[in-house]
Design goal:
By secondary structure, the chain is α+β, with helices and mostly antiparallel strands. The protein has a domain of about 130 residues: Sandwich (Jelly Rolls), CATH 2.60.120.10. It is about 30% helix and about 30% strand. The strands form three sheets. Strands 2, 3, 5, 8, 10 and 11 form a six-stranded antiparallel β-sheet that branches. It has a three-stranded antiparallel β-sheet with strand order 7-6-9, with no helix packed on it. Strands 1-4 form a two-stranded parallel sheet. The protein starts with 8 loop residues before the first strand and ends in a 15-residue tail after the last helix. The C terminus is likely disordered.
Length: about 190
Amino acid sequence: MARKKKQVAEFHYYQMPENRVLFALLGEKWRQQYGRDIDYLHFHNYLEIGYCYEGSGYMTLGEREISYHGGTFTVIPKNYLHTTNSMPGKLSSWEYLFVDVEKLLEKMVAGIPGCAEQMARRINSRAIFTESSKYPHLADLIKEIMNIIRSGEMYCSRKRKDLCCLSHRGGAAKRREQRDIQPECQSRDKIKIR
């Protein structure tokens, strides 16, 4: 009987800048041939939001293999096995945001017992792979956050607060519309960002 091949995974550890809840990997460095000579999955210590600007290939998310192209975006929980592979000989252009979900939610829902933990469990429960045409509001928000970071305005706190609140409120409203579910935390009007 043949032995089952042992699967290898690589842990990509990132150090979050002090007093921050997110950082970005942007620019030309991320226009490359993904997956060249790589036959293993990897995972991160933070939630990864990826946006594909151009190129095509496939992404492996856990056990699923899905085709991607320009306009695809992903939300991959921390510790979730995945990898990206460009079409052979072709370049793909991706950019990434890495988010400390727990720390962000603690700031957003301060004073609402258990809400941050409940929301973090839900966010970290599955990976999302979708098209910007299906969720243009979210795709635009992802690109806007990346552009703010790229421009150096990232730490203009008013803009950051507006984006975080917009993300929380817009995303929650969209999910309720699509799934007809009750909000996880009833006191959304008490959202605070410090």
